[in-house]
Design goal:
It is built from 17 helices and 17 strands. The protein is of the alpha/beta class. It folds into 3 domains: 53 residues, 3-methyladenine DNA Glycosylase II, Chain A, domain 3 (Orthogonal Bundle); 261 residues, TIM Barrel; 123 residues, Rossmann fold (3-Layer(aba) Sandwich). An 8-stranded parallel β-barrel has the order 3-6-7-8-9-10-11-12, surrounded by 7 helices. α5 runs parallel beside α6 and α13 packs across α17. The longest helix has 16 residues.
Length: 459
């Protein structure tokens, strides 16, 4: 059960020292209970009490780190069953299954997927190497997969251009697993292969290598018992494999594991989930896309497919991006002056809001026109055009103030195109920006290509 403010208050010095940044100990405890601060911000709580409180206040699902360096990914840490309740924390990762027979072809196709969508770099984040019985062939596939982990910089990505993939070793043979870990221990792969019969050996192997252990079993009861035994032995760095007996069973397991952890507060099932839909789909790629969508929503931390290309990536990455944005925090584009099509200070200027989706739609249409133009983005609260205007975030005053303070030599051409839906701002802007020519643009971004070409022809 979640702790309340008074539960934390019992352990504070109650002297209102303000070292935590809050005016009183009670105010601090209320913020800790609300998830706004961590309990360790108080320097006066005894270490043994801090350890107890930290454990009691931790999310019911553990936060797990897998991978190393720029290839380290965060899994788990979820606190709600439904996104609208608060927000989801760690996005689903998508990966491909490779083995000795298909490694080169699958990896080559997967590496082609690398693009930006609304400022986020989209690529295949995980490579899962499957053991098919031949240890030498498996180790050869592991070497190929490791070579494919590093990714080139994406010149179009303003952030997150450096990236690397996460490696999973799916193997239940101890000898093969040991050699594979020796080859890959520097990249901290997930060792996925523990089950009812081998969990002791695999848990020791994973702990010695300092890697996450994937745990599976014949059914949910056996999985629960196996996890409990691994935890009792001191290993809580786990991910749960929901199994591949059938789509129905895998879905039921994924949901029951998440509900047990978050609703019933059962920490034995408080771990991220791995779903191998490449095996569940029976080779049907259309089915894989549907299953990837299903398990992105309910509740895959890692979803593995038999292959990855743009036709598969576009719908599932788009779904994930929409699902894993914080509903309480709009996606925003940093205010600034953005040149397109080799624009300089003499190019025409357009303006719109800082809502990320609006920005990227408008930017795409400007690029498509081929006309040099500068796009001026001011702070509009992260709202869409009409919403920002209705909320008083997009006003003639705010746009004029931003242009006067930040554009300067970047915008010598004093022509500004307004979104058509806020044509009402034209007169006020002309007063606020003497010498500027204010033009009302199209209502929809799709009309910008014709608008800009017609403007250039008329100039």
């Amino acid at each position: 059960m979640a702790l309340k403010g008074l539960d934390y208050f019992k352990f504070t010095p109650k002297n209102n020292c303000k070292a935590c940044g809050k005016p009183t100990c009670m105010a601090f405890c209320m913020d800790v209970a609300a998830g706004k601060l961590s309990i360790d911000k108080c320097p006066n709580i005894k270490p043994e009490d801090l350890a107890k409180l930290s454990e009691a206040s931790a999310p019911p699902m553990k936060t797990i780190k897998a991978g190393a360096g720029i290839g380290e990914y965060t899994l788990g840490g979820e606190t709600v069953l439904y996104r609208h309740e608060k927000t989801y924390v760690s996005k689903t990762l998508y990966g491909v299954n490779v083995n000795a027979d298909n490694a080169e072809a699958v990896l080559a196709e997967a590496k082609e997927v690398d693009y930006l969508r609304i400022g986020e770099r989209m690529y295949t984040e995980v490579i899962n190497v499957e053991f098919t019985g031949d240890k030498a062939a498996f180790l050869n596939a592991v070497k190929k997969a490791k070579d494919a982990l590093a990714m080139p910089e994406n010149p179009d990505a303003k952030s997150g251009s450096k990236a690397a993939r996460l490696l999973i070793l799916s193997v239940s043979d101890v000898a093969a697993a040991t050699e594979a870990l020796n080859l890959t221990k520097d990249v901290k792969p997930i060792l996925n292969g523990a089950n009812e019969s081998n969990f002791a050996d695999f848990s020791k192997l994973a702990k010695d290598a300092g890697v996450v252990l994937g745990v599976g079993a014949k059914d949910l009861d056996a999985l629960y018992d196996t996890v409990a035994k691994i935890e009792a032995a001191g290993n809580k760095n786990l991910i749960l494999d929901v199994g591949t007996v059938s789509i129905k069973d895998a879905f039921a397991n994924a949901v029951q594991i998440r509900r047990a952890a978050l609703k019933d507060q059962d920490r034995t099932f408080g771990y991220p989930s791995l779903i191998n839909i490449g095996k569940l789909s029976g080779g049907n790629h259309e089915c894989e896309v549907a299953l990837a969508s299903l398990f992105t929503v309910k509740y895959g931390s890692i979803v593995l497919l038999s292959r990855m290309n743009y036709a598969i990536a576009n719908p599932i990455f788009g779904l994930r991006q929409n699902l894993y944005t914080d509903p309480q925090k709009p996606m925003r584009q940093e205010p600034g002056v953005y040149p397109f099509n080799n624009a300089n200070a003499d190019a025409i200027n357009l303006t719109t809001v800082d809502f990320a989706l609006t920005y990227f739609i408008v930017a795409g249409e400007i690029e498509r026109s081929g006309i040099p133009a500068n796009l001026i983005i001011s702070d509009a609260g992260g709202y869409s055009v009409l919403t920002a205007w209705a909320a008083g975030k997009l006003t003639a005053g705010s746009v004029a103030k931003y242009i006067k303070e930040h554009c300067g030599d970047k915008c010598k051409n004093q022509v500004l195109v307004l979104p058509g839906k806020v044509a009402v701002l034209k007169g006020e802007l002309e007063e606020a920006l003497p010498g500027w020519k204010i033009i009302v643009g199209p209502n929809e971004a799709v009309g910008l290509v014709k608008f800009l070409k017609d403007f250039k022809s008329a100039a």
